[in-house]
Design a protein that fits this description.
- The complex is a heterodimer of chains A (340) and B (383).
- Chain A is built from nine helices and 14 strands.
- With 340 residues, chain A is an alpha+beta fold.
- In chain A, a hairpin with a 2-residue loop joins β12 and β13.
- Chain B has 383 residues and is of the alpha+beta class.
- The chains are: A alpha+beta (340), B alpha+beta (383).
Chain lengths: 340, 383
């Protein structure tokens, strides 16, 4: 049995949750290790995966066992339907669901809430996303290796985009170069559609890549990432198009100083909110995709985070493994050298 | 479809529809957390991302009855429509956390609201309020497209089709689906796509259903995620890709035969053409989804994937109303009356167990007296 699933069952016990009904693909993949079709963007809640604590069974909405591990036999698959009542009926028929008192859900829609309340009149619906966040937060060494593998792909694709950065290229073309290389390296799913955006002085850096042509002397902020077998590898850097100007060098030096101080403060015992107190700083968990970190989340050994800083028209971000003996960067992509 | 596109007009007309529908349904406001819904109501954009990241970086739209401009909460000011008044544009609301949920509750108007989804921090504090599911409201607004919306779908589809022409040249024994995805993604961004919306699908179909992958319904399994398996000569590849242009989805489907189609592949393509043509013959305002189902079916055989549909609408969602031939049933289909401005993506399937099959997609919009294509007409098997 996968270790992540064991942690999920432990969290369910600790919080007295009998059944989890999961709509978020990252959560479903964490407990099932199933690969289903990747779609961009938010999707409204639908019960795509069910975990029953009593039986220790994972059930999946799928019409096929393609991408589904052997540990989940086909009698634990239930088909999709355009009629939400059918889906809710299939979930309610899963052994152990109808007697559940506490059902954790990672989201809801008004319609599914109504239908579930009807078929499970005795159940109380509680925060299943908090359960999954807790189960996913600390990474095992094997999980860290999966993140490392994703970072290798992300960095290779990032290098292709840096190589393609020259006067006349469009921002959107760099996004295409990154994704093409990512696919050549064997994964077709981005963690995000990358930002490859010309910096406009001290204005906030755009994250929506446009079709703007990049000119000699432009500073270009780049943030991108991939999902390899669902695990995220991501990074951000800011590169000059052509030779860096004195302005670029000044901006980078100021950023370097702020980054060093931010990185110094990133260690076990620190709250995510403390890191975010630095203007332009960002921090989120990295695992089976993006993992949210609340302001009160305390960094501890075994967490993997992406720490980022946007300041003075320069954007940079690295993935870090938090350890008791200090932070270990998992991204190794260089920062631009003096003349780059 | 005129080639003319006025994005500000499109946003204005969509907002007017949402406000009119709120008024008609006696609702005080629509609160929209889903990105396609927020994109529809406000016309704002956020970068495409994996679902988890997209949830944490989501835009939130609050559209009030009465017609005042919508309020938008976003981390991406560059994606805000220029005409939205500055005092209606706000920083992101982190509704994945209690403080963001509390901040949203504070700005909600009194009275019944339509909501598309709850995050868990929103769920508990909203209990006791009169909440309806926003699906019905959005469907009512979205099902009939304005001319600008049709133009966006047309442009999205044209970019998608153009990119596929370049990908098609690469199809050969030994090539992997992942390589086709790479060429496709690079090309769509060169051609001006706003985003990619689905992992491009290049599924090698088994000759027989029994050859697997196994299925819980007994039907052909499609779609499955792209893998690094190299194509072999004679492989039948079902293609399904979708990109986004100004918030509107394309939906492209075709069949490649590695090494080139044989007679039986052309025959399957011709039978697919007949199914779609029979549907197009009856397609006009006043026809029902049930009429299309009957036109496509022969001797009780419903030639499409039963867990999907004969046809679906498309817009800011890749599949939306009108849905035709789903498991919602015959009564649903017969009650669904087609009207000018509705869009249908036809995707029937021809399957000869033992010799695989043919699948493609074709998009049309209903006009005042018949229909007009938004996609190219499918020309049969490729490769």
């Amino acid at each position: 049995v996968a270790e992540g699933f064991v942690r999920t069952l432990d969290e369910m016990s600790r919080r007295d949750i009998d059944v989890l009904v999961l709509g978020r693909e990252g959560n479903a993949r964490f407990v099932s290790e199933a690969t289903r079709l990747w779609l961009a963007g938010t999707r409204p809640f639908a019960p795509g995966c069910v975990v029953v604590r009593e039986t220790g069974a994972v059930h999946l909405m799928s019409v096929t066992d393609f991408g589904v591990p052997r540990e989940i036999p086909s009698d634990r698959l239930y088909p999709m339907s355009w009629n939400p009542a059918n889906i809710v009926g299939a979930v309610a028929a899963i052994p152990g669901v109808s007697s559940a008192r506490h059902v954790g859900v990672d989201g809801l829609t008004p319609l599914f809430e109504q239908l579930f309340t009807f078929v499970l009149p005795g159940a109380e619906f509680v925060d299943g996303e908090a359960v999954m966040r807790a189960a996913r937060r600390l990474k095992s060494p094997a999980e860290v290796d999966l993140i490392r593998a994703a970072i290798v792909v992300a960095e290779d694709a990032f290098a292709a985009a840096v190589d393609a950065l020259r006067p006349g290229v469009r921002e959107s073309e760099l996004k295409g170069v990154f994704e093409e290389r990512m696919c050549q390296l064997g994964t077709t799913t981005p963690a995000l559609e990358g930002a490859f955006c010309v910096v406009d002085g001290d204005a906030p850096i755009r994250r929506l890549t446009s079709d703007r042509q990049i000119a000699d002397g432009d500073l270009v902020a780049m943030s991108a990432g991939v999902l390899l077998d669902g695990w995220e590898g991501s990074l951000a850097r800011t590169w000059s198009c052509g030779a860096p100007t004195a302005d670029h060098r000044g901006r980078r030096e100021r950023w370097d100083a702020q980054w060093t101080s931010l990185l110094d403060g990133c260690r076990p015992g620190v709250r995510a909110g403390d890191l975010r107190a630095t203007a332009g700083a960002s921090v989120h968990g990295v695992g089976l995709g993006y993992e949210g970190l609340e302001d009160d989340a305390v960094l501890e050994a075994g967490m993997v985070v992406q720490l980022g800083l946007e300041s003075g028209g320069v954007l940079g971000a690295d993935v870090l493994l938090i350890r008791d003996e200090g932070v270990q960067p998992l991204t190794a992509f260089p920062y631009p050298a003096e003349g780059e | 479809v005129s080639g003319d596109l006025d994005l500000a007009r499109m946003r204005r007309e969509r907002h007017r529809k949402v406000v009119d529908t709120l008024d008609a349904q006696g609702l005080a406001a629509a609160v929209l957390l889903g990105q396609p819904a927020a994109a529809y109501a406000v016309g704002a954009r956020a970068p495409a991302a994996d679902a988890a990241r997209a949830s944490h970086q989501r835009m939130v739209a609050v559209v009030a009855a009465g017609g005042d401009a919508p309020h938008l909460y976003t981390a991406f000011p560059e994606g805000v429509p220029p005409e939205l008044p500055a005092d209606h544009v706000h920083g992101a609301l982190p509704v994945e956390w209690d403080e963001g949920a509390a901040a949203l509750l504070e700005v909600l108007p009194d009275g019944p609201i339509a909501l598309d989804e709850y995050t868990m921090p929103l769920y508990a504090p909203l209990r006791g309020r009169e909440i309806t599911d926003a699906t019905a409201l959005l469907s009512a607004c979205k099902v009939v497209k304005t001319a600008d919306e049709l133009e966006c779908i047309h442009r999205a589809q044209a970019i998608n089709e153009r990119a596929i022409l370049d990908v098609e040249r690469l199809v050969a024994p030994g090539v992997r689906g992942t390589e086709l995805s790479g060429a496709f993604l690079r090309r769509i961004f060169e051609l001006g796509a706003s985003a990619n919306t689905v992992d491009p699908i290049w599924q090698a179909m088994p000759p027989c259903i029994a050859d697997g992958p196994s299925t819980v319904t007994g039907d052909v399994v499609f779609p499955t995620p792209t893998t690094g398996r190299p194509f072999a000569a004679g492989d039948v590849i079902w293609v399904d890709t979708g990109i986004d242009y100004e918030g509107y989805a394309s939906d492209f489907g075709c069949t490649f035969v590695v090494g080139g189609p044989q007679r039986r592949h052309h025959d399957q393509g011709a039978r697919w053409r007949e199914i779609v043509d029979r549907c197009l013959e009856v397609l006009k305002p006043g026809a029902t989804a049930g009429d299309l189902v009957r036109a496509a079916s022969t001797n009780g055989d419903r030639p499409w994937l039963p867990h999907l549909y004969l046809a679906h609408g498309i817009g800011t969602n890749s599949a939306e109303m009108p849905l035709v031939g789903t498991d919602l049933g015959a009564e649903f289909d017969d009650a669904l009356v087609l009207a000018p401005g509705m869009v249908l993506v036809f995707e029937p399937v021809v399957w000869d167990d033992g010799e695989a099959g043919f699948r493609a997609e074709e998009i049309v919009t209903v006009t005042d007296d018949s229909y007009e294509h938004l996609s190219a007409r499918d020309g049969g098997p490729r490769g």
